[in-house]
Amino acid sequence: xxxxxxxxxxxxxxxxxxxxxxxxxxxxxxxxxxxxxxxxxxxxxxxxxxxxxxxxxxxxxxxxxxxxxxxxxxxxxxxxxxxxxxxxxxxxxxxxxxxxxxxxxxxxxxxxxxxxxxxxxxxxxxxxxxxxxxxxxxxxxxxxxxxxxxxxxxxxxxxxxxxxxxxxxxxxxxxxxxxxxxxxxxxxxxxxxxxxxxxxxxxxxxxxxxxxxxxxxxxxxxxxxxxxxxxxxxxxxxxxxxxxxxxxxxxxxxxxxxxxxxxxxxxxxxxxxxxxxxxxx
Length: 281
What we know:
Strand content: 5-15%
Number of helices: 11
Helix content: 40-55%
Shape: globular
Radius of gyration: 20 Å
Number of strands: 9
CATH architecture of the largest domain: Alpha-Beta Complex
Distance between the termini: 24 Å
CATH class of the largest domain: Alpha Beta
Largest sheet: 6 strands, mixed
Order of helices and strands: EEHEHHEEHEEHHEHEHHHH
């Protein structure tokens, strides 16, 4: 069922058991990312993350394509001339407005990375520009065999500024990022899997990859939600830390959080040779 507090013309959310589903819902425009997308995405993520029942989120898209990226027509004014070009504001104030717009869009995408639970992106069809920014902020990515990816910004005279250039090097390596970003070339699902952009490739288009994403989400959701959320937090905390610093962080983390009812249940279920029934307490 959909949380009652959230309503959007371009996104939909739904909760089934321990899984949250976030869908790009502007299929008539190839799920292009216009103003409503940027404002509504963090609200959608917040609505799902605030539901204590949700242990994993699956990100999918309606229609033929995952996303064709930024809606250039709808967003042109905010990117090129935030005051519409006809005002009396100075270049400095226009630059400040543009900087704020960019940072707001960055924060919108970062909501996925900062979500307390893992997010799995299920990509089919085209995933271009902002679509790559979006999936790069997810924890796991899977694709249908018809998926195509492109860090397209250089081809439209933009430096990608919503997260791809920052997150992709940690996913696929600097050399692959440089090739994709400098050329703006398209790659297919097999190439995406080869370089590590996606974990798996599924047959069957949108339905096939959504089923695969749900299978992985189910595998996550049966585990202790405290351990899953803690693992995501510790992985994120590794950024900017040495191995020694990361080990110190996780030692402190587990000192605070390891003694849970879920740990007792894990030991009990192991001894009784049954699956664990975790409550997140």
